[in-house]
Specification:
Layout (H helix, E strand, L loop, with lengths): L2 H4 L9 E3 L2 E2 L2 E2 L2 E2 H20 L9 H20 L8 H17 L12 H23 L17 H13 L1 H30 L7 H35 L2
Antiparallel strand pairs: 1-4, 2-3
Helix pairs in contact: 2-3, 2-4, 3-4, 3-8, 4-8, 5-7, 5-8, 7-8
């Protein structure tokens, strides 16, 4: 058995599929980029196929698409209010991209691009910068009130402002690490247990039920992490629009 097949970290290695160089920069098309493109393609196909008929009584595929649509719409309405409608396309696209990336990564032999901190941090920093720009665009310098809660005694500013500032600046880190860490831990666990089952040979049939259960749990985690990432994005939008 090849070492790569039992090494739990081997599944996270990025390999170039088409090698490309731009000066001193390596811009190769990698397995990570391939599965990002695949996710976008599947999302597009799913949404186009599920809404093609637009029946009054929705079928299975249309129901799933509508459930995703309504869930994100409700998150925005409940956390941001009516002003969050304009941001629905971005938030919905973000949710679907993470959801499909997480789920596709559970297929044996697939690559989970959300298990790389570079990918999750890139998404998180885009959200952080966008929310900051929205905050200053709506409130100007008044956006700085976010770092000093309304009604707090003035003398607490020395304590509260640094705490709020550190908390705000740590948002992209916490947002990206949460998704990245959950994906890595889950896939490592599956790989280790899967290798253990293979090593047992014929006796591996007994613990395989546990492995199936963990796989189902990881499917739930994949959906939950997409939901958590999305709802935190909505909360950050709320802070930018409404402040505290």
């Amino acid at each position: 058995m090849a070492s790569g097949s039992i090494d739990p970290m081997h599944q996270f290695e990025i390999h170039p599929i088409v090698s490309l160089q731009l000066g001193s920069y390596d811009i190769s098309f990698t397995n990570s980029a391939l599965f990002m493109v695949l996710s976008v393609t599947l999302i597009t196909g799913f949404l186009v196929f599920s809404t093609r008929g637009r029946a009054l009584v929705p079928g299975r595929w249309q129901s799933m698409a509508e459930m995703g649509y309504e869930m994100v719409a409700n998150l925005l309405r409940d956390n941001v209010g009516s002003e969050g409608r304009k941001y629905f396309p971005f938030v919905f696209s973000l949710f679907m991209f993470i959801l499909f990336g997480n789920i596709i990564g559970l297929i044996p032999g697939a690559f989970t691009f959300t298990s790389h901190i570079a990918v999750t941090f890139a998404m998180a920093i885009v959200i952080f910068l966008a929310v900051t720009v929205i905050g200053f665009a709506r409130h100007g310098a008044g956006f700085l009130r976010l770092f000093f809660p309304h009604g707090a005694p003035l003398w607490t500013a020395v304590i509260l402002i640094p705490i709020e500032l550190v908390s705000y600046l740590s948002r992209p880190i916490s947002l990206s690490v949460r998704l990245f860490a959950n994906m890595v831990v889950g896939h490592v666990l599956l790989k280790v247990l899967g290798g253990f089952v293979i090593m047992l040979g014929i006796f591996g049939i007994f613990p395989i039920g546990v492995l199936v259960g963990i796989q189902a749990l990881e499917l739930l985690v994949a959906a939950l992490q997409a939901y958590v990432f999305t709802i935190l994005t909505c909360i950050y939008l709320h802070d930018a629009i409404h402040l505290h």
